[in-house]
Amino acid sequence: MEALSSKYKRVRKRSEDICSTLKTEDYVVQPMVDVSPPKWHLGHTSWFFETFLLISHLKGYTPYDPTYSYVFNSYYESLGVRVIRTDRGNLSRPTVEEVYDYRHHVDAAMEDLLSGSISDQVNMLTVLGLNHEEQHQELLATDIKYILGHNPLFPTYREISNPIRVATGAEEFIVIQEGTYDIGFNGSGFCYDNELARHMVYLPAYKIAKELVTNGQFLEFIEDGGYHKHEYWHAEGLEWVKNNNLVAPLYWHHMNNQWVHYNATGIKPLKLDEPVAHISYYEAFAFATWKEMRLPTEFEWEVACGQFDWGDRWEWTGSAYLPYPGYSKAAGPVGEYNGKFMVNQMVLRGASVVTSPGHSRPSYRNFFHPHIRWQYSGVRLAQRMN
Amino acid sequence: MEALSSKYKRVRKRSEDICSTLKTEDYVVQPMVDVSPPKWHLGHTSWFFETFLLISHLKGYTPYDPTYSYVFNSYYESLGVRVIRTDRGNLSRPTVEEVYDYRHHVDAAMEDLLSGSISDQVNMLTVLGLNHEEQHQELLATDIKYILGHNPLFPTYREISNPIRVATGAEEFIVIQEGTYDIGFNGSGFCYDNELARHMVYLPAYKIAKELVTNGQFLEFIEDGGYHKHEYWHAEGLEWVKNNNLVAPLYWHHMNNQWVHYNATGIKPLKLDEPVAHISYYEAFAFATWKEMRLPTEFEWEVACGQFDWGDRWEWTGSAYLPYPGYSKAAGPVGEYNGKFMVNQMVLRGASVVTSPGHSRPSYRNFFHPHIRWQYSGVRLAQRMN
Amino acid sequence: MEALSSKYKRVRKRSEDICSTLKTEDYVVQPMVDVSPPKWHLGHTSWFFETFLLISHLKGYTPYDPTYSYVFNSYYESLGVRVIRTDRGNLSRPTVEEVYDYRHHVDAAMEDLLSGSISDQVNMLTVLGLNHEEQHQELLATDIKYILGHNPLFPTYREISNPIRVATGAEEFIVIQEGTYDIGFNGSGFCYDNELARHMVYLPAYKIAKELVTNGQFLEFIEDGGYHKHEYWHAEGLEWVKNNNLVAPLYWHHMNNQWVHYNATGIKPLKLDEPVAHISYYEAFAFATWKEMRLPTEFEWEVACGQFDWGDRWEWTGSAYLPYPGYSKAAGPVGEYNGKFMVNQMVLRGASVVTSPGHSRPSYRNFFHPHIRWQYSGVRLAQRMN
Amino acid sequence: MEALSSKYKRVRKRSEDICSTLKTEDYVVQPMVDVSPPKWHLGHTSWFFETFLLISHLKGYTPYDPTYSYVFNSYYESLGVRVIRTDRGNLSRPTVEEVYDYRHHVDAAMEDLLSGSISDQVNMLTVLGLNHEEQHQELLATDIKYILGHNPLFPTYREISNPIRVATGAEEFIVIQEGTYDIGFNGSGFCYDNELARHMVYLPAYKIAKELVTNGQFLEFIEDGGYHKHEYWHAEGLEWVKNNNLVAPLYWHHMNNQWVHYNATGIKPLKLDEPVAHISYYEAFAFATWKEMRLPTEFEWEVACGQFDWGDRWEWTGSAYLPYPGYSKAAGPVGEYNGKFMVNQMVLRGASVVTSPGHSRPSYRNFFHPHIRWQYSGVRLAQRMN
């Protein structure tokens, strides 16, 4: 098994790799409230290690800069006044270079801490910090895409886009029999508190698609007037569509009588056999309704996921993000990680092309508000058996 | 069994009874977006019968006034342009008298329609219309309370308040064993489509309180600083509390060093042994967390509800409002009744002091957004068994 | 000269006459923030007499209802907490009948006060109160028009519309020579503090139209694409036009390929030779620019007004509402009447079809924000001499 | 006289000098809507020369990058779709380096254009472009102050602050006799169209302070409760104060029982004898009212300004920004420079510590909305003679 200090270096390096093609300016801006400036991600993940590990567990360590706790804190109510998220894009200082200096200072101290024998507490918090960092790596990737993809110059991020599984065209389904199934994490490694409290769930028989919905299929929905027909939508979804004049997934543009989309390599023609991405729960639901199917619940997904390929798109489920029956919130700041978000959000399962390797698992629960679409969110169809 | 025409008269009369002490002016205003002017409720429920029964099923019937369909339509997208809800409080015409004339005109035509032999379709739609009217009766009562309770003159609605079951002080719990239970409607009378598709749900063992949380218990939460301690709240709940400077349930006022509340008889001292009402899901959740318990799921409530008294307060559950596994939306306008609201809302079970007699049942699902508190919403605690 | 008590009765009666065709419901609503419910006007004007005259000057008088001071106060900061204007439309109580009772109670007490010999202070305050009432009469008329004209039933207010001077078609101008002119009130009767401090103003030579701009002329502007050509508009005017999707004056509708407008008698075809009304300063300015002319300043208007007919339309001027050089604010509540509004507003001169008889004069200064158009505001063109 | 090409180089260099201590990140952010990112100023001023001079007047010149016209256009409606100002802070590209490359490319081409004999049109447009650049230099300075002064790290901009004239403490006044005075530009050099059309204005006798109001005097106003007493404020000013919880000028902070303020060198103790800066028109007006004086009109200021020192603070006047009687808007884009802003703004006269040398003059009219305070705006008192 990989040593913790080695894993620490590997994971931390990956965050910097994601930013390696950025210009200094790209690190600074925040074009919408859900996006954070890349430099904030780099600082915040370092602040996490400094606050929860170095200050408490490394003898003699003093905070690198006391103002950073104000700048790089996130939503940790118990640690003091929160920086309002919309303000992050107004902060030119600390500079990108200063953030990297901070980062490397923290890394050196962490190496120091991890070089000797470490307590279970340090081990647990370091693993949590690395998983936290991996979550931010995913956000880094999607935030960078948003920043560049909303710039009128449509800059290139990388020369090649992430490779993606394309559809075979065979619309096959897996059938799952009715029964009582175990749900939740049952491995031995790391998982979040929201996956714990493994429990039984009764499921009626259902079928679930082997492949994700493609751009081509979603285009049929658009061309059938799907965005304008109220019968497919939640009332709030329809209002959201109207208020924002939406006609297609995020990053799709209709230029010169052709559908194109922005990806890492710039503006490109849409590939019809790629799985659709960047749709909201509202759109996923409307599409499924139009298809006379539905989204799987998160339990249906977890039970069936061993029988299909997943990992390219976060997949919207029909489940609201709620605690499992035996859920209990951890004490202290760690307990603020999940529980307080369990309202008004929908669960996504799987992973996406920008998820860190090894970061996801069958029991992993992601969650977003139903209008969110800057993640690589897609849709897999399900249907009950008659 | 009561004849349909007799039931029609009884239910329709009850709506007018609810308004019998109102002044003309009280029928007109809309002090917040979730409240509708009483005259709108009276007109809208009549429009329902005119549109879905009289126009289609009573030979020779012509619409009473073609503009009324514009004024009294609700959220029925499939019937044309919706009146924006916030606009209802700006409409002085039709007058209250004209609305009553319209109402009585519809009633006379409905009597005509129901006097002979009627088709299954007419029977079904009339029953639906009466249940629809009963839902609006509950809204009428809570909207009138909001209108009068937000007037600086605090006018009296009725000389006596609705009688209410008070707490015994014994904090007893019912224990339910783990197992697979049937959920959903299985009677022979009327129910909504969202209660149908009876299905099995597996539940771990749990206990659930015999009595509702009281004003006195909620006051302890307030006095313990509950509204200011982030650890009890959802992040969005806390933001809602802060943005609205909330310190107590709706209608509570702290006057002359005493907690009072507004009810049908005016401003009165709070009775500590009455069940708390007019709290949001956020407050119900925070209270339960403070108590180191939780809200029951809607399934837990339905399974246990035969063993406790209910009906005075709508009870917040920990379940998001989602379709049952076998749910399918009815075709046509009737299908817009429930399905399109199944996002971002939480389920309440039970009934309240202003629910029409016979309108609720164990499988009945009410639903509101988590910040809503102008309904008689309360809280019953639950806990898992160790 | 008319006795003060007789004048009091005449003016007070006129307010009730304006409301004589209203239904109770029409008294209650507030469809936009600048409009007040008619019953509020009736109560507020009575509150003025009660507060500034009866309480201080009529021995033994006690306030009719202490809560009314909260409900009917306006923007008088020095008298206590202000009711937020947008809330007025939410108040069903006091009822219309109660407001009339209050009104008549105040009237009886005022008759008592005015029946004997009265001090200069009482005389002055009564005259101010009557002028205040006349200002509210104008608002009553325009607010009622807004309430009925924004109701989808377009109810009739009166069987006949106010008669109006129509244009002759001769586009004649009056020429005024350059010179120093006296500006401000110099009569012996009542005037507001903002007209006082008569002073000299130097004016270059100019010409000013004998007649107001007509509907027909304004229609030419519309048909020439005037609302879409930025070069005629202030930047803020253009933004206002775009944000509100405006294409014509308020109350104009394009129905069945014809321009119609709402007036006291309902929806009627537009009369092309009537002076245009219900336009904002932005629209008046854009129209004048399109005509290659400009609006007169308030000084140019005052100097020339003896040479043309006026009184049907409030006329936008090119002058911002600012204090005259010698202006000083009166002490006490009376001093809040004008001075604190002298920012961000433009001056209108003249009067309108709904101005109370005798209420206006050449030195009278009305003022509104540049986007306001629910008043009978029109435009008269001017031009400098070369 | 300085050659145009030499002046071009000097002025253009000064913009870069203002930015010489910035970090790359400081060029990018936009912490409020009135502030533009420094790189935008550098690009926009270059775009001005490219668009109005190089493309039309330099043979063979092609736009450097066609997308830049979209990014760096300002409010020039006649040149195409405007970039919404609030979006400027979201654009990471073009990078700062690319903007400087663009700038230097334009400079080289302009040197080429100005090296030979030039037409009157080129001369006029170049002078306009340099004045435009100087206006943006002032904005650059105040925008940078806002960016750094709203960063929780309060970074230093320069080691020394701009030197400033301090008050002597003698509260002396200049007396101007009544009469008719000439107003407007009458020199031979450059001026804006809004200063032209020199015309006569009649002024009553008045007196005007020799010195600006100081921090110390403004502190007395604060300590007397000036921000909380409605009688000194416009109604809209008071609402602005309340909505924003204001208690002092911008950049003032009350730390450790001491008033400090942010300036170019960081957080420093307030100097009581320096002229107050960063106050809005509302605050200037309230202060003057508290002093039982008033602001001078722009005409009073222009007539008297030869008799006092000015140039450190833009001075709020009591005049609304309106066209002079003979004003006519220039044809084409140049005509959009001033006229379309002549509504809802107040005139400031003078100049400030960050105004480019030689950029101001007695007839110069600056203008801002009454709530604006990120400029070095101050106040000089006036009073009419009795």
Describe the structure.
4 copies of one chain form a homotetramer. Chain A is 32% helix and 13% strand. With 386 residues, the first copy, chain A, is of the alpha+beta class. In chain A, the strands form 4 sheets. In chain A, strands 10-9-8-11 form a 4-stranded mixed β-sheet. In chain A, strands 1-4-12 form a 3-stranded antiparallel β-sheet, covered by helices on one side. Chain A has 2 domains: 146 residues, Four Helix Bundle (Hemerythrin (Met), subunit A), CATH 1.20.120; 212 residues, paralog of FGE (formylglycine-generating enzyme), CATH 3.90.1580. In chain A, β6 and β7 form a beta hairpin. In chain A, α2 packs antiparallel against α5. At the B-C interface, loops of B face loops of C.
Largest interface (CB within 8 Å) is between: C-D, 40 and 40 residues
Number of helices of chain A: 9
* CATH topology grouping of the largest domain in chain A: paralog of FGE (formylglycine-generating enzyme)
**Relative strand content of chain A:** 5-15%
- How many domains would you count in the coordinates of chain A? 2
Q: In summary, what is this structure?
A:
The structure is a homotetramer of 386-residue chains. The first copy, chain A, has 386 residues and is of the alpha+beta class.
Please write out the topology.
The structure is a homotetramer of 386-residue chains.
Chain A: H1 4-18, H2 38-57, H3 68-72, H4 96-115, H5 120-149, E1 173-176, E2 179-183, E3 199-203, E4 206-209, H6 215-223, H7 235-243, E5 252-255, E6 258-263, E7 266-269, H8 281-290, H9 298-304, E8 314-320, E9 346-350, E10 366-368, E11 377-378, E12 382-384
Helix pairs in contact in A: 1-4, 1-5, 2-4, 2-5
